[in-house]
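Researcher: Sequence recovery benchmark, item below. Answer with residues only.
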């Protein structure tokens, strides 16, 4: 039996379908969800990666901004402020974004968030960071 998964952002439904497992990084640590998992509500780490392992398919990897992760009744809802599938990410543009974030970083919080998000995009797209 698979679990129903929906990854959504304010702009669109990024991915929905059935999966064997979902892995996400919450502020309390990494969590893996399979069928029959007890109910959970977590806060996503801003600039992290969510991995969805569809039934009989290739893994779906997405970069996510802050948001929430909930599990109930074999359904996983990932509600992210920003979400982008790795397959949709332009690697050259993502590398430029990371370089710009690193150049502008003076230790302030917005620069750190921009760098984390840029790194997550590159990881989601399969690049070494």
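Model:
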């Amino acid at each position: 039996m698979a679990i129903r998964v929906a990854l959504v952002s304010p702009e669109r439904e990024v991915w929905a379908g059935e999966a064997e497992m979902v892995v996400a990084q919450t502020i309390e640590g990494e969590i893996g969800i399979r069928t029959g998992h007890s109910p959970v509500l977590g806060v996503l780490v801003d600039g992290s990666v969510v991995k969805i392992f569809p039934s009989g398919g290739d893994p779906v990897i997405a970069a996510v901004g802050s948001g929430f992760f909930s599990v109930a009744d074999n359904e996983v809802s990932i509600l992210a402020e920003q979400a982008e599938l790795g397959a949709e990410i332009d690697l050259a543009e993502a590398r430029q974004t990371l370089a710009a974030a690193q150049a502008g970083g003076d230790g302030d919080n917005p620069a750190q968030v921009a760098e984390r998000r840029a790194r997550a995009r590159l990881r989601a797209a399969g690049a070494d960071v």
